[in-house]
Write a structure and sequence with these properties.
The chain is 62% helix and 0% strand. It is built from seven helices and no strands.
Length: 94
């Protein structure tokens, strides 16, 4: 995960979740979800993605909505570290 963090890929992916191009949002949300799937090692770096991912639950593209939902699930899959932030950001209302 060190090289992943050093390349500062996560902030770029988070920004792409708000891109005007539907495909960018779809694949960025997919990549963020994958980065959280196996371990909670990146949860701290992924926390800023939560508001963007919650917004993507309302995206016009069905696959983007599905990717965002999967990513949100993966962000609580391996630990409860981000649960309170999810609630504070309105995840229960989304």
């Amino acid at each position: 995960y060190d090289s992943f963090c050093q390349a500062e890929i996560l902030p770029q992916l988070i920004a792409l979740c708000a891109d005007g191009d539907s495909a960018c949002r779809k694949f960025a949300s997919f990549a963020l979800g994958n980065s959280a799937f196996h371990s909670d090692a990146l949860y701290g770096k992924l926390a800023p993605a939560i508001p963007q991912l919650l917004r993507l639950l309302e995206d016009e593209d069905e696959k983007t909505r599905a990717n965002a939902a999967g990513a949100i699930g993966n962000l609580v899959r391996n630990s409860s570290e981000l649960c309170s932030m999810m609630v504070q950001e309105g995840a229960l209302q989304s």
